[in-house]
Protein: LysR family transcriptional regulator
Organism: Stagnimonas aquatica
Amino acid sequence: MSASDLDWNDIPLLLALAKARSMSAAARELGLDVSTISRRVAAVETSMGTRLFIRSNRGYEPTDAGAVFVAHAERVLGEVQALRLETRAEAEGVQGPVRLTSVDALFDHWLIARLPELLQAHPGLQVHLLADNHNLSFTRREADFALRLGQPTEDAALRMRKVGTPGFAVYGTARYAGLPRERWGEQPWLGYGEELAGTLEMQWLRSLRPEPRQVLQVSSLSSLIRACEAGLGLALLPCLLGEPSELCRLSAGVELRRELWLLSHRDAAGIRRFRVVADWLQQRLQADAQLLAGD
């Protein structure tokens, strides 16, 4: 047996013996029996290849090697205890960075106006908003949370929960107000480029008859909203994002619905600040469910 075979759980046991100088006292302190103490001391001495304690009329005293062992063991035990405390504080404290990724318009038109509530309740949080249409890696910890339109592919690292069903409607500036549905296809339209051609919004747009003429293609929802506000044409937008703007809603109802999913790494459930943020996001989305749905 070598020092590499040392059982680190024996460190508190040897420290207790060095302090008490008595097998029975150390056993009482640790809630063990004397035979266990004796056996573990012998095992550690065998592992270290030297005697660590000698028995005298004053009890068990550390040898010179034992004194060196005890000095280092006290430092190691203190560092382990600090590690446990700091790790627990990190896990249980509602403070530190939280990275959330989503489409930029969801941040601009919904989340940012509601964030003061979260940050006032938990001022130690540092929220990082990552506007990105792509699926960042949770395994590589590129993000802690994501809000995505549509259920992602199953991933062992992901924890997924459906948090809403956003409704979409047609919007335009005031000059389009009252335009009958049968004339929508005659108007200039705004849409996404080839990289987003497979989205439900673009499938819906292609289904209009006559098929609309797209005068502008963009790569982000925020740009689509801005272009619509500039009067460049009609656009199919989430009701949640279109309502607070200066746009007019042309749709009497909802043209289509998508699913909104909150994604996180499965390990995030063990860290309190992540649990708090996830629960807050879900509660806010539930409170705004009617606005989100566009009914």
About this structure: The mean pLDDT is 84. Residues 96-166+259-293 form a domain with the D-Maltodextrin-Binding Protein; domain 2 fold (CATH 3.40.190.10).
